[in-house]
Specification:
Order of helices and strands: HHHEHEEHEEHEE
Structural class: alpha+beta
Number of helices: 6
Distance between the termini: 59 Å
Shape: extended
Length: 288
């Protein structure tokens, strides 16, 4: 009976180890970069655990294939829509040269605005696609954020005189491993977003703070508040929550690009309303 007990204990221990391995692989199937690993351990075994591993593997493989399809879909859409949009622009230009009544001119102006809006969406999608491909081949190096941000804020003050830019840094040294060009592009998107949704003459605050392990980049602006249930969705592609001003149309891709850059640097992002309800703050956390 002792032999039977020892055999059962050894068998149950082996099953427990296999289940733990399978559970660990399932937990780690989705990487922080969004990559899906579908090679589950023990999938070749012919027992119930092997069958469960094969089922996990099939589901994850299908999810991986669908994710890859979605990634290539944006590039395909941009490519396929360019030609018909160019034809529409050409036809519209020809129509605008023809004599037209006041009502026809009104419709032509609407058509012009619509086609330009669609063209802006395609340009933004193309920019996001190019960034996704560029990130894959971008080497990481030491980046000193303080001088990078100081120069950027100085440029924003010169370029956007209808807003007041406040710069504050509370850390003596702020060095990360990444790309200075991508960091500047990230900050540009956050600042452009702040400009779009803040009234002229208002303040836009850029702040760099943090600890020895993590830095925090925050960009805040006055303006409409964010809905409680939609804050995290702002970083998805083609999602826009706030109305914005009338200077430009908000396409919902700027913050998606921010999300790509943050993930490349191993950081996290957060959108929230200011405590006094006067506006919005975006915070980016980057490992030192």
């Amino acid at each position: 009976s002792l032999t039977v007990i020892l055999t059962l204990v050894g068998y149950s221990g082996r099953l427990a180890r296999r289940i733990r391995r399978l559970a660990g692989a399932a937990d780690a199937a989705l990487s922080p970069e969004g990559e899906i690993a579908f090679h589950m351990p023990g999938r070749k075994a012919r027992d119930e655990i092997g069958g469960l591993a094969r089922s996990f593997n099939t589901v994850l493989k299908n999810l991986h294939d669908y994710t890859e399809y979605l990634r290539t879909l944006k590039r395909t859409l941009v490519h396929e829509l360019r030609t018909p949009l160019s034809r529409i622009f050409t036809s519209l230009e020809n129509l605008e040269q023809e004599p037209a009544s006041e009502s026809q001119l009104r419709y032509l102006k609407r058509l012009r605005r619509g086609t330009e809006h669609l063209n802006n969406i395609l340009n933004s999608m193309a920019e996001a696609n190019q960034l996704e491909r560029a990130i894959e081949n971008t080497p990481k190096e030491a980046v000193h954020l303080k001088p990078v941000f100081e120069n950027a804020v100085r440029a924003y003050r010169n370029a956007h005189t209808d807003h007041v830019f406040q710069w504050r840094c509370t850390v003596p040294f702020a060095t990360i491993l990444g790309s200075a060009d991508l960091i500047i592009q990230m900050l540009d998107k956050l600042v452009n977003n702040a400009i779009d949704f803040s009234p002229p003459g208002s303040e836009i605050k850029v702040e760099l703070s943090g600890t020895n392990e993590e830095l925090c980049v925050s960009v805040s602006n006055q303006g409409p508040a964010l809905p409680q249930t939609m804050r995290d969705k702002l970083f998805d592609s083609l999602v826009s929550i706030r109305g914005g001003n009338q200077k430009s149309e908000h396409l919902g891709l700027g913050l998606y690009i921010v999300d790509l850059i943050v993930k490349f640097h191993g950081g996290t992002r957060q959108a929230d309303n200011l405590s006094d309800g006067s506006g919005v703050v975006f915070k980016i956390y980057l490992p030192v």
